[in-house]
Amino acid sequence: MTTNRFLDGEYAPVRAELTEHALPVTGTLPDWLDGRYLRNGPNPIADVDPDTYNWFTGDGMVHGVRLSGGDALWYRNRWVDSPATERRLNRPAPDSASRAFLHGLGANTNVIGFQGHTLALVEAGLPCAELSEELDTLGVWDFDGTVRSGYTAHPLEDPATGELHSVSYHFGLGNKVRYSVIGVDGRERRRVDITVGGSPMMHAFSLTESTVVIYDLPVTFDVETAASSAVPRRLRPIAELAMSAVVGRVPMPHLLSERLPRNRAGSLPYSWDPDYRPRVGLMPREGGDADVVWIDVDPCFVYHPMNAHEENGAVVIDLAVHDRTFDRDRTGPTDGGHRMERWTLDPLRRTCRREQLWDAAVEFPRVDDRFVGRAHDCGWVVGDEGGGLFGSLVARMGGRLGGPVVRRFGDGVFAGEFTFVPRSSDAAQGDGAVIGLVTDMANESTRLAVLDAQTLEDIAYVDLPQRVPAGFHGNWLPTASS
Fold first, then answer.
1. pTM (two decimals)
2. Bond before 404 cis per omega within 30 degrees
3. 188-195 and 176-182: which strand pairing?
4. N or C terminus of the chain with fewer C-beta within 10 Å?
């Protein structure tokens, strides 16, 4: 029988939506932690084919813990509603008027707060969703009708303006990706389509005070995989020819591309392309397509930059770099090695200087979000010194204690992404806690860990009522008054 690592062990889906109150706490939760910690990730609601399942395609499920007054008030987990959950859970679609909803999977990648709204995010042209305070799906979120072609899973909020910036990709855009700025009124105020080399996956981007950084790297839309999962066998050669003629070359009408099958909880129609020219683009934030400066880089892939800033005319980026991905293994991001690097991009010489910051296999880098686009003093990563995607360590890189400072949780324990929470709105950079989920597979239990952001020593743990599968991204959403 075929096995798929992203359906077993720490990745195995859970089958129930729970609500539990008054959770057990070990240690003392700081009273300044008043809000919700939310984490999104794939959790197939039905059985899937292990031969073709890709981790990125599982139905979205958001897990949440509400903290206030030193107590853990509740835990909830909810699927982000989609056609699959509507059928399986026998509940109505939250927004039957939205055509986009009818063709998507539940947004499975990130969950953020923006202007009082809780948003579950996904990429590649699929719809995002608004959630209630209790994590129920309210409906598709399209920024008051101003964003109709999907969004990104990794927007960045400018700490100076409160505006939300993004670079999104979708095979229906042809050889373009889309830079967007959402104003504080929740509506798109600026949009720029940027010409790239084909139809690349662009999981994230970077932002400085004046520059947008675009990663045009060699994971691209795979016509053969898309056709094999969406078209009857006898029609696949014709479909592949037709798709090859347009994908990555010309835009497709949104209503047409929206109606193409999404292959829910199946194979991912993106793969490593050794013939694709890898490069990074630098565009002024108020510039356009013609203003992008392109810099060639060695073949690699970037899922997650930590942060970027400007320094002496260059753009400096700390980021997690993969040698390759979706090449031999199409089930998830497991091909090749990955590590933290610093890239210094010179727009005048059009050069990229790469420096390895640490040889451990770490990912999911985060900074103090109050310093997005500015020089940062420290950041946090999780990973596995043995080379795996998830492992038993969380580390702080930089900071007043030097670095890296490493916290190991022990064999059989897996640490997900940790996010920083400042002690107060005006606290010094890195003064606060980092919080994230830690799962012990020996007893299949998960705790919310609260650690000192500098020393990584224990502050408190919250016991959750069930194991939380390894997933993608989490964030701290403070209450409006805190």
1. 0.91
2. yes
3. antiparallel
4. N
414: nearest Cα among 456, 446, 385, 379: 446
Residues, the chain: 482
The domain total for the chain is 1
- At 167, give phi and psi (nearest 5°): -125, 120
Q: Taking CA 383 as the corner, what is the angle to CA 411 and CA 435, rounded to the nearest 5 degrees?
A: 90
In single-letter form, the type of residue at position 341 comes to: E
Output the pLDDT for position 100: 45
237-291 pLDDT, tens digit per residue, is: 544 454 455 555 556 544 444 444 444 445 688 999 999 999 999 999 999 999 9
Answer for the pair 417, 382: CB distance below 8 angstroms, yes or no: yes
- Give one DSSP letter per residue of 185-229, joined into a string: TSSEEEEEEEE-SSSB-----EE-SSEEEEEE-SEEE-HHHHHHH
HSE at residue 394, side-chain half, CA atoms within 13 A, is 29
SS3 content of the chain, % helix, strand, coil (to 5): 10, 40, 50
CATH of the domain at 327: 2.130.10.10
Domain that holds residue 69: 5-478
